[in-house]
Amino acid sequence: MTLLLEMKNVHKRYPGVHALKGISFSLRAGELHALVGENGAGKSTLVKVLGGVVAPDEGKILIRGESARWSGPGDAIRAGVGIIHQELSLASHLTVAENIYLGREPKRGPFIDGRKLADDAARLVEGFGVDIDVKRRAGTLSPGEQQLVEIAKAISQNVSILAMDEPTSSLSARETEQLFRVIAGLRASGTGIIYISHHLEEVFLLADRISVLRDGEMAGSADAKELTPERVVSLMVGRQIEALYPRTFRDPGAVLLDVRGLSRRGVLEDVSFTLRSGEILGVAGLVGSGRTELARCLVGLDPFDAGEIAVEGTPFTPRSPGDALDRGIVLVPEDRKRQGLFLNRTIRDNTISMRLLQGLRKGPFVDRPASESLAGSFVQRLGVRCRSVFDAVFSLSGGNQQKVAIAKGLAVSPKILILDEPTRGVDVGAKAEIHQIMNDLAAQGMGILMISSDLPEVLGMSDAVLVFRDGRCVARFPRGEGAQGTLGERVMTAATGGIANA
Predict the structure, then answer these.
(1) Cα–Cα distance, 308 to 74 (Å, whole number)
(2) Residue 164 in contact with residue 202, Cβ under 8 Å?
(3) What global pTM score does this model have?
(4) What is the pLDDT of residue 27?
């Protein structure tokens, strides 16, 4: 295969950080070369260098054997390099066609030729085998459709090298399948693809080669068929992970949370369970099965129509998250960026945000020394990687953002912690750290309700598993009911309708 790209001995330094340490990387025509590593390993920096966003301090970039150096992303695009970032950059108020050809619109005299613009865009999109109205505004599209428009925009610029950063992070299963079909078509046409993902199952499904970055260095690179997921994980974290789920199981204590017959019309029906001190109770089920809706009712975000909740034996009807907080119940929501964190605020501000309701003040002012000490203690306790508690949260990796979201909840010393998809979108190293945090909290007597779509996580971390389907809790499986593989099959059977009740 034709060698499209070579990056040789690339270095990139920032103040106090050597982000890339002599990285060499290559890509062939029609190849999918996966780039994996923990958050902060250097993947994004390498792609920024390739895309002309930042300039390397040392090293060479060769495109089809010719030395290349560019002053900005435009030069990289003209050289045939397209980058699709995890955070999509479409102009929501413009149409699909306008986004694809933004700044390159066909003209008729001094005016944009609207008909040709739409026709060219439609022809391009149809070539992917997808049905998107190019006259729709981009802001009305689903995440999967927006991803395809970004690809169409890149291909319209005749790129032969396409880097994709976590392309499936916000896609449904159907949208992911569609994306994979488009990727297959691009490869067949000779486009080389750099595929960055935390999802190793995707990597091994798609990749011809896999390269692993660790701490700014190339930890290993080989044909995918020569590697195993376990070997890749070991290369990523620099150690063998003997157990991905560090759960230490103990006999649970007294009942903290007792839910009886909880119902919300059209959402939940007759849900009953108990959560004990020191217990991690996993909640499994398909998307839309009622898991998140349960959490929202428990913390007063949504009302319920029938049923009873008791905390440590005392009846409780939450009217707001503040009511739940007063009873020692905290929710760390699934969408940390929009619901769990103030991204433009500091680690300190996020950590203390709920504590302010409990009086972390001196008169009308925040007690600055106390707030810094509190935030610092959680940074150390949870292993948040940052320069100081005054770092803006948006500057942190996904895994460290999630730790801050957890710290925000723990700062109010809850008895019951509800974690909705606690490790979604974080790398394998951060995932292991979050699992250890959960294990430590349970050992201290906290009750944890863990909602997760990651079945191995549910099986590995839970004392017992509740299975939801169509708003009902259809099964409860204690830990130890058969081998993990068998238990996983039983959980999935219940979630998909194989059994009616527990």
Answers:
(1) 60
(2) no
(3) 0.59
(4) 97
